[in-house]
Specification:
290 residues, alpha/beta, Rossmann fold, 12 strands, 20% strand, globular
Length: 290
């Protein structure tokens, strides 16, 4: 695959570039609106599109890109394939085995996981900048990013509510690396420990009984439900009936995309873009304003 000629670290490229979000399905993705809003504010003539790419077709599609391509955002089911394709990865990607951002470097794709930063920054907007104990609902791929995010917030004990205890085993192994005690808890539990924060990582259409949702909501605290396309969810409705705050995954989506913009413009997720406040405001309007 032809590479891109990058500038010095932190240098923003200003010529025309192509970017896209890939996944299967992909029509629901809001990434084109988010990124296009950012590049308009930055004055960059960059085109960002969406493309349906299957896991089987990923390698061929990646190899077909020419040197006009700057990077890719990856959604399900491509985060594992993108991890494999990356020649170097950031720590968050290494911990989770998931890459949702590929920067197309001359020497090969560089992989990042911005979902974790998206969770941390989204919770920061809810005045959550630290937590000792929390709960994750669901044990799928996003649960790993949620666990790392909780570790960055200082969590030392995390309950994972899952249908099968075996599904929590990989999270327990990850927890050992992070210094977090991870305990499996069934959806059929009679009650749940009171925690200040619950992160729900279930798909929007995942089946969940009202009984289980009610029991989880009874434990209180803030709910961050990573779903943003199916809102309200069964869980968020239960939280609101119980009088507890619930926020959708739109904030996570917004902030993980901002970190991607940083990567695509400077190559570094820790380097803010020019006039970042205005960029974030435009992106927020694109995702929240409809």
């Amino acid at each position: 695959m032809a590479g891109l000629v990058l500038g010095k670290p932190g240098q923003v490229l200003t010529d025309s570039r192509q970017l896209a979000v890939w996944g299967d399905p992909i029509t629901h993705s809001r990434s084109p609106q988010l990124h296009s809003a950012a590049y308009r504010v930055l004055g960059l003539d960059w085109r960002y599109e969406r493309r349906q790419v299957s896991e089987r077709g990923f390698a061929e599609a990646l190899a077909s890109l020419d040197r006009t391509w700057r990077g890719l955002s990856l959604t399900m089911p491509l985060k594992g394939a993108a991890y494999t394709a990356a020649i170097v990865r950031d720590r968050r990607a290494e911990l989770t085995g998931a890459v949702n951002t590929l920067l197309l470097d001359p020497d090969g794709p560089r992989g990042f996981n911005t979902d974790i930063g998206g969770i941390v920054r989204s919770l920061g907007e809810e005045d959550v900048d630290g937590v000792e104990r929390a709960r994750i609902v669901g044990a799928g791929a996003t649960a790993s990013s949620a666990l790392v995010a909780l570790g960055e917030l200082g969590a030392r004990q995390v309950d994972v509510v899952a249908r099968r205890a075996a599904a929590v085993v990989p999270l327990q192994a990850l927890g050992e690396k992070l210094g977090i005690q991870v305990d499996p808890v069934p959806f059929t539990a009679a009650d749940y420990a009171v925690v200040p924060l619950t992160i729900a990582t279930l798909p929007g259409d995942a089946p969940l009984t009202e009984t289980a949702a009610h029991a989880l909501a009874g434990a209180g605290g803030l709910l961050l439900d990573v779903v943003y396309g199916h809102w309200p969810t069964v869980l968020s409705s239960a939280w609101e009936r119980a009088g507890h705050p619930a926020v959708s995954g739109r904030g996570m989506l917004l902030h993980q995309a901002l970190l991607q913009v940083r990567i695509f413009t400077s190559g570094d997720p820790d380097v803010p873009v020019d006039d970042e406040e205005a960029v974030l405001a435009a992106m927020r309007e694109a995702i929240m304003g409809d």
